[in-house]
Write a structure and sequence with these properties.
heterodimer, A: mainly beta, seven-stranded antiparallel beta sheet, three-stranded antiparallel beta sheet, 13 strands, B: mainly beta, four-stranded antiparallel beta sheet, 1 helix, 47% strand
Chain lengths: 211, 122
Amino acid sequence: MATALNVRVNYVDATHTYSGHTSDYITMDLVNDYFIWSKTLADLMTHEPTSDELNAAAEIIDPALAVTVAKCLLMDYSHDVGGSYYTHLIQGMGLNNQYVYCFSFDGATATEPQLEAWDTSAHTTHAKNVLGIATPANSMIKGVCTTAALPGFPWAGTALAGASNVLLLNAALGALTIAKDLYSNLKIVIPAAYTTPAAETFVLTVRYTYV
Amino acid sequence: MNKPLFQIVFEDNTNFNGGDYQKTKWLEISTDKKIRTLFYLLPTGDYIGLGGYERFYHMVECTKDVTGDKAGIQNLEFDYIIGQKKDYTTIYQIDMKTGCINVKDIKNDDEFLKKLNPNFWR
């Protein structure tokens, strides 16, 4: 069968691997679950956050300093983890933590899997503000592969946008020869005095190969 | 009945048929036999016939969105059939969305080939 991918997030302890502590992770239902990047949105909400709540909790552009969005939460549509909670704070996001976002492959691949960021699911453009307005190096989405090591702190990461600025997920070690859990850390950094406030969506996608 | 993804004729005149994009059967191809001719299915329903190569490689490139309106769906992006001769390698890259085929010859020590999982050559 084709190699399958599951995406998981750590909501308990970002020093724990998935294989060692499966209960620390939520496996995303990618069709219904989604990420919320926010300054103050609460963990463990008992309803899906409304637009008003999201706007009230949004990150604020700083006139003098670049701002890292404070939180990434998983919006868990099934709300069946640890109680009836819709939001779960993803642990270690943007920090010196290794096991934050987990990409589990159930078999070998022909090439090294990579994480990409695009405007839409067509994977053809990266013109949004958050993606650097077609200049990949200016993308606000930063990623670092943590499969092999801690990212350090502070970590700059790779600005993710389009086909040129991607994140290899196996620490540049190449194709997967067996099933393996790969890890990354991600963050969104808004430049100081950025002149275009916006609420934008973007598409993160994993590109991989199988035989 | 769906056409097999590929049809192989070995040097000993025996045959092997592949499966589909979800279960290609590529790894079920015998490593003890040399492939004489490989017919690979194109999006048009026709087959491209490849012969005269020392060995072949195949892979399917896909994406799976983590966020967005099509998150969770495995999208087939490109299909590769690669034939290697003594001095060079030919890559047939099939765009699964447009059906276009991009053909490129590269040297056998090209970085592209070094990054491939070596276990999948047949």
